[in-house]
Amino acid sequence: MAASRIDILIDRLRSSVERSSLILEAAERQAYSCDGLTSHRAVPKLVIVPASREELIASVRAVIDVDLPWVARGAGTGLSGGALPDEEGVLVVTSRLKAILEVDPISRIAVVEPGVVNLELSKAVLPHGLYFAPDPSSQIACSIGGNVAENSGGAHCFKYGFTTHHVLALELLLPTGELLWLGSEGMDGPGPDLRGVVIGSEGTLGIVTRVVCRLLPLPEARRTFLAYFDSVAAAAEAVSDVVSRGITPAAIEMMDHLAIAACEIATGAGLDTTAQSCLLLELDGEADEVAQEFLSVRALMDLHGSSHVWEAANEEERALMWLARKAAFAAAGRVAPAYIVQDGVVPRSALPRVLEGIGRLGVESGLSILNVFHAGDGNLHPLVTYDPSIEGQEALAEEVAAKILTLCLEEGGSLTGEHGIGVDKVCHMPEMFTADDLTTFERLRGAFDPSGMCNRGKLLPTPRLCGERPGRYQPHPLEEAGLGERW
Amino acid sequence: MGTKSQSLTEEFDAIAELSATCVHCGFCLAACPTYSVTSMENDSPRGRIWLLAQAARTKEVNDSLRLHIDRCIGCEACVPACPSGVRYDDLIDRARRVVNVGRSKRELLGRSVVVASFSRAQRFGSLVPSAQALARGVVKSSLLRPQLPRLPRVQALLEQAATIEPQRSMGTFTSLVPNERARVVMLTGCIASVFFEEVNAATVKVLNAEGISVIVPKEQGCCGALASHAGQHRPAQRAARALIAALDLPGIDAVVTNSAGCGAMMKDYGELLEHEIGSDAFSGRVVDVMEFLDRFKSVIRYRPMPREILYHEPCHLAFAQGVRSAGPSVLGRIPGLKLRLTEGPNCCGAGGLYSATQPELAHQVGEAKRDAILEAGIDLLVSGNPGCAIQLNSLLGDRVNILHPIVLLSRAIES
């Protein structure tokens, strides 16, 4: 029985970890029942928040010993439910493991614990003129361990790549309890790239206990500007044109009219809310090169009918522009009571077509869809807004979101660019992969986790999971009446 | 009883509505001083909102909720950090009232005594020096000192009491200037008037030097912030009404305060008094002294002060009132003075009575702040809030001199 195994586990943990590392109270466990994807919720039987790496290792091994399912969680900012707890199992939270263990400015590496917040690492190495390149919008809060699990990207991944390009090695506690290092401190190690397999595996292959991060020198020069357009299509064409001319901006972000308005309400950054769309462009590198690229890009913006441009005059203005852009998802909460965010990827050349298709879906369904995305790599983030208090609208939003994904797949794109599959898109996996592909994935996973207890039910579809109609969280009538709670 | 449960239902309804705005993005985690030291979800705004939403749904207050609401400093740094616009300031006020339901009588009484004694500090002003001597004696006593760690709340209070410089109350007066540019009424503050008389004197001096007349009515009570922090709604409302009656004089351009905590409370009177007649208008006239000075082109000649000082932003000024640039802007009038913002967590852990009610967590937050301040290697720091000044003083001792910015301005005026 699961309950008695939990009791045995708690008993054992009491002698091996600090009392404050265990969250036993039901009400306190509830706060961990979801990550950034609130529509899926589950309350774990036990939450462990280890105070040290040693506690983390000891406690996960204890969980494995009693054969309970377990899930790792960082800062709980993920958007696909990767850190959704297992109702029958244990949630292991890395938030207290936030030590930066070593910074080597000569080799440009930092060794960190998994709970270190993304932006804190960049702040810590700033005095050496270095930074950690992956910058997901949640970088103010998300953890490096979570970045490794999801292979996080961010606004600058078009030029600088994803987490996998900035993590040289990692220490992994396998679902079997073994501890090992993968990768090397050099740029390339011998043997198959198991480090690469683990990065982006969404917490299904174990839990990361230490990470060797690669740091980049800060660029000599940066120019950041917003170009406004009268239509989404014109902005999309401008993006394709910039890239096809061999220019690689550090970031090319697009926001449509509704997204601009939401971000402006949230941050008061000074965006022009009358524009139909805007591109946030950043060029970085050596001063000469940036100056030249700026002239070319500026001319291309004019060519594609950009109505006006706001260039950041100083670091404060640049920070404001990014603040506005990075607040976009949560800012959608300002214009609608609820939303579903998708993460599909399409080839850049298909951007105008897909955006038009999304626009059509919005008109047909009557739901407002905000578009904010990494235009450079065709990673869309449409936010389908709805009002849960209107009967049937949530289901309609689900349907529209699913149709957007189908649209992306039809264009030869992908289900996810950086948010991960998690539980959110797990049932869409067969649309993208064949049965053979999925079997291969299963076998890879089984090699790391033979008992299948590590983040089970995520990433790869199971008949049990997808046989049931996947649905978003709906309060039971008893819950609504305040007569019962979901544990 | 009927009205009590009715008002509780209303609070729960409001909490349900306010917490529904949260989209669980986690952007508040980085802004929260308690999360920064504990890294526990339930010590973050997002976690507390979750607990509150659960409570609103079940209409039940459990010990976990009470614990984590009590552990919130109320710095409100999460409010500007929130992209989806959750009104955590409103939420925490309601939460503090709600968690008093079911609190043990003993604890409620204890909290009332602390609130009452602090908020009447003015009346007990003459007792302060002897009480302090006693506190210093206890802190230094070889017999009693070892017992203190067992009583962290007592220890925190005693250590703070021992470090504060006592001052006598200023009394009533009106200081009119010829050709006045404005006329204001000044809040003396319940704690400030006892412990920081120099701050009030400096405020009058600088305002006068700028050609602003100052009226200081004698009968002033507490602004009600301490009661409000303790979730005591009615006492807070009573204090607010009394203070409005005392300060809302005809022909006044503004109600000036040199205490960020009091300013935040008075600017919130409209909400606190449910917009009863006069409350919103009064709140609209309340202004922090630095905010007020920033509105005028200065006519003061300041002596140059060629040195670097640390500037601590009180949470109740920066986040609760949204006053951020005024302090540095006004201090920038002193030639040669260079400001550096303090690093570490925004909050020093003071939070009204927080350092007395949650000494351990307040100390942890304070230690993080202290280390960041010492790291800067600058021995003069300004802070526009008496609560922060007391907390920082007890954390830093002799190593860093702590002044109110208005005192620095007053000392820099060329005679």
Search tags:
heterodimer; A: 487 residues; alpha+beta; Uridine Diphospho-n-acetylenolpyruvylglucosamine Reductase, domain 2; Uridine Diphospho-n-acetylenolpyruvylglucosamine Reductase, domain 3; Vanillyl-alcohol Oxidase, Chain A, domain 3; 4 domains; seven-stranded antiparallel beta sheet; 18% strand; globular; B: 415 residues; alpha/beta; Fumarate Reductase Iron-sulfur Protein, Chain B, domain 2; Rossmann fold; five-stranded mixed beta sheet; four-stranded parallel beta sheet
Describe the structure.
The complex is a heterodimer of chains A (487) and B (415). In chain A, a hairpin with a 7-residue loop joins strand 17 and strand 18 (382-386). With 487 residues, chain A is an alpha+beta fold. Chain A folds into 4 domains: 2-93, Uridine Diphospho-n-acetylenolpyruvylglucosamine Reductase, domain 2 (2-Layer Sandwich), CATH 3.30.43.10; 100-217, Uridine Diphospho-n-acetylenolpyruvylglucosamine Reductase, domain 3, CATH 3.30.465.10; 221-410, FAD-linked oxidase, cap domain/gating helix (Vanillyl-alcohol Oxidase, Chain A, domain 3), CATH 3.40.462; 429-467, no CATH class. Chain A starts with a helix and ends in a 7-residue tail after the last helix. Chain A has helices spanning 2-16, 26-30, 53-65, 118-125, 144-150, 157-160, 194-198, 232-244, 257-267, 287-303, 315-326, 328-335, 351-365, 393-410, 429-432, 435-448, 463-467, 477-480; strands spanning 22-23, 46-48, 70-73, 90-93, 100-104, 109-112, 130-131, 167-173, 179-183, 207-214, 216-217, 221-229, 251-256, 277-285, 308-311, 338-341, 369-374, 382-386. Chain A has a 7-stranded antiparallel β-sheet, with helices on both faces. With 415 residues, chain B is α/β, with parallel strands linked by helices. Chain B folds into 4 domains: 2-98, Alpha-helical ferredoxin (Fumarate Reductase Iron-sulfur Protein, Chain B, domain 2, Orthogonal Bundle), CATH 1.10.1060; 107-163, no CATH class; 173-294, Rossmann fold (3-Layer(aba) Sandwich), CATH 3.40.50; 307-412, Rossmann fold (3-Layer(aba) Sandwich), CATH 3.40.50.1860. Chain B has 23 helices and 9 strands. In chain B, strands 1-3-2-4-5 form a 5-stranded mixed β-sheet. In chain B, strands 7-6-8-9 form a 4-stranded parallel β-sheet. The radius of gyration of chain B is 21 Å and the shape is globular.
